[in-house]
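Extended Data, panel c. Modelled sequence:
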Amino acid sequence: MENILMHSAAVEMQQIAKKVFAGERISDEECMYLYKDASLSEVGVLANHIREKKHGTKTYFNRNFHIEPTNVCLYTCTFCSYSRLIKKRDQGWEYSHEEIMDLVKKYDGEPVTEVHIVGGVLPQYDLAFYQKLFSEIRSHRPDLHIKALTPVEYHYVFKKAKVSYEEGMKLMLEAGLDSMPGGGAEIFHPEVRDEIAGGKCSGEEWLRIHEIWHELGKRSNATMLYGHIEKMEHRVDHMRKLRDLQDKTGGFQTFIPLKFRNKDNQLSHLEEVNILDDLRNYAVSRIYLDNFDHIKAYWPMISRQTAQLSLAYGVDDIDGTIDDTTKIYSMSGSEEQTPAMSTYDLVNLIKKVGKHPIERDTLYNVIQDFENVEFEEDKLYKGYLSLPVVNN
């Protein structure tokens, strides 16, 4: 396949292929070519080459659960089907500290390794609230990795508390925060961001909060919301800013393209992009973001079947068991209305496309290698596999 690409009729494709096979960085202009002019098969071959060079056939997942403190929010993002305005808060939920801890304790005795906490922005979810919450989770279950809040939430929380980003992130670290998810990035370019997410932190502020977190020696993820009003130029601009920050800090672990879904939001008149566009976006991001170790497909958003296909287009991670009541994507029209998969489901999904399943922790340390493990569904307990942990 490498020879086929090197003899492509398009000179531009030959140049890009030569760079990729030599392990060299492509330019913004070449990235635009991959989006607009290259065939999907050509882009897929290059992305899969990089994926296999970095990871072979290994495909990662973790055992996690999500908690969403509230879906009531001060902001009115046009793409969001999840949030409810304060004047309609009777249509949403607002968990107390005690209710959130009850959700955490529901997983006591089960081998989950991560709690993922994100939600709406409201005044009562302030600095003191999250300091207490993270501290109590850490005290209750020290082995549970706390991955929580986006820069959108931190920006509001720190501004309300009148502390700097630097001081605020240090306080979160001291309270027990382990890492940050990649949400709230949307599209960095102001001409798009102002239209779809006006009032939230800017792209520069999002990047700065992650940079400070990286300077503290900690890790985070990054996302991009695609398939709405943005142009390909905006996607490239977004990824260039991520690539530049990664060159500087090395703190990003994985990049997660997030597909816009059009149910019950202010952009419902827009047609969603199709699966071919999804696969191209995964592949292009794998090629362009050469300094990111991992590309993740968030299966509750794109369906299990599309997640399987993405593993041939540069993706090496399909997130986790998500054994919870996550509503962010089910409310926006995703195929997964009850987003939960057992370890059995995930391992089989990965193996069916010839890949090598690896259970990881949040920081990509190997917990269990499932390549040669066979087990039956009836041996599962509450969706989790009871096997001794293999330390690698």
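Confidence is low (pLDDT under 50) at residues 324-337, 378-392. This feature is highlighted in the accompanying rendering.
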